[in-house]
From TrEMBL:
It comes from Aquincola tertiaricarbonis. Its EC number is 6.1.1.-. Residues 1-24 are annotated as: Disordered. L-glutamate binds at R25, F26, A27, P28, S29, E61, Y204, R222. The gene is gluQRS. The lineage of its organism: Bacteria, Pseudomonadati, Pseudomonadota, Betaproteobacteria, Burkholderiales. A motif ('KMSKS' region) lies at residues 260-264. Belongs to the class-I aminoacyl-tRNA synthetase family. GluQ subfamily. It comes from the Bacteria. This is Glutamyl-Q tRNA(Asp) synthetase. GO terms for molecular function: ligase activity. It is an enzyme of class 6 (ligase).
Length: 317
């Protein structure tokens, strides 16, 4: 992974001052058990919190209820406990946070930054095709702004947040602790963001922003596949007057076909039956993070050695 550029003490932009105690989090979705890829993000976030002398929290991101597997949340917490990665506070479940998300949407509605949308995915694809935008495989379905100025007789399905216009596009820049400086044109690369879905469920982007603020998260350490979500979340943070954490996006673990190792492509759950299994899983994650070989025999000793190695990697020691 190499040295992380631009390291400073924990700082957050926005309300509540320029600095804050370090508070990190790991936020798995209970759509399956942890695997080698998700452990990389879990371990990095835990090590970063420990190296900073901060707190580490676990949030169960089960806002997308239909995709969640019964019992997977408790199974994930059990896996983390066997790995020695235990939350410093009781875990938070997004499924219990609907009132907080509703309050945030109400603020966006009152400010005129959120509007109802009546478009189906098929209608969005048709509008993009009519405008000469050919669909890209795995590409972003950029919302063309059809309902930005009214529903035009369609029933409301979802709620969206405005992300600039063609005349005044929204370019958002941020600094990642590993990836460095980045900029995204939200207007033309993303389009207006869904914050409440057509099926009535809360969108990930809104939920994560509200919860990071509620838990006073100073640093978000997560997988590189989520880096493109960062400008959307910063935009919502600014609209809601919430602090912006620092971000660090970890390297991805890839399957044999080159794609991200994930539950969707059949990643095997971690084998954690014995202390040797635990140490092997942690060591594999450490290699992905660019840590040097670690030699402690016990999982507890290994984590202490890994914390010191991480502190050196990020310039704290």
């Amino acid at each position: 992974m190499g040295a992380l550029p631009g390291h400073t003490g924990p700082r957050r932009e926005g309300t509540g001052g320029d600095s804050a105690p370090y508070r990190g989090r790991f936020a798995p979705s209970p759509t399956g058990l942890l695997h080698a890829g998700s452990l990389v993000a879990a371990l990095a976030s835990w090590l970063d919190a420990r190296a900073h002398g901060g707190q580490w929290l676990v949030r169960i991101e089960d806002v997308d209820g239909p995709r969640c597997i019964a019992g997977a949340d408790q199974a994930i917490l059990g896996q983390l406990q066997r790995l020695g990665l235990v939350s410093d506070e009781p875990p938070l479940w997004q499924s219990q946070r609907s009132d907080a998300y509703a309050a945030a949407l109400a603020r966006l509605q009152s400010a005129g930054t959120a509007y109802p949308c009546g478009c189906t995915r098929k209608a969005i694809e048709a509008a993009l095709a009519a405008a000469g935008h050919a669909p890209e495989r795995f590409g972003e379905l950029v919302y063309p702004g059809t309902c930005r100025d009214g529903l035009h007789g369609k029933p409301a399905r979802a709620w969206r947040v405005r992300c600039g216009t063609d005349e005044a596009p929204l370019h958002l820049s941020w600094q990642d602790r590993r990836l460095g400086a980045a900029t995204q044109d939200l207007t033309h690369e993303v389009g207006d963001i869904v914050v409440r879905r057509a099926d009535g469920l809360w969108a990930y982007q809104l939920a994560v922003v509200v919860d990071d603020a509620a838990q006073a998260i100073s640093d978000v350490v997560r997988g590189e596949d989520l880096a493109d979500n960062t400008p959307r979340q910063i935009h919502l943070q600014r609209l809601l007057g919430l602090p912006t954490p620092r971000y660090l996006h970890t390297p991805l673990v890839r399957a044999a076909d080159g794609h991200k190792l994930s539950k969707q492509n059949g990643a095997a759950p971690l084998l954690l039956d014995t202390p040797a299994d635990v140490r092997a899983a942690l060591q594999q994650a450490a290699v992905a993070l660019g840590l040097p070989p670690l030699h402690a025999a016990s999982p507890e000793g290994w984590l202490a050695e890994a914390t010191a190695a991480w502190a050196r990697l990020v310039g704290l020691a």
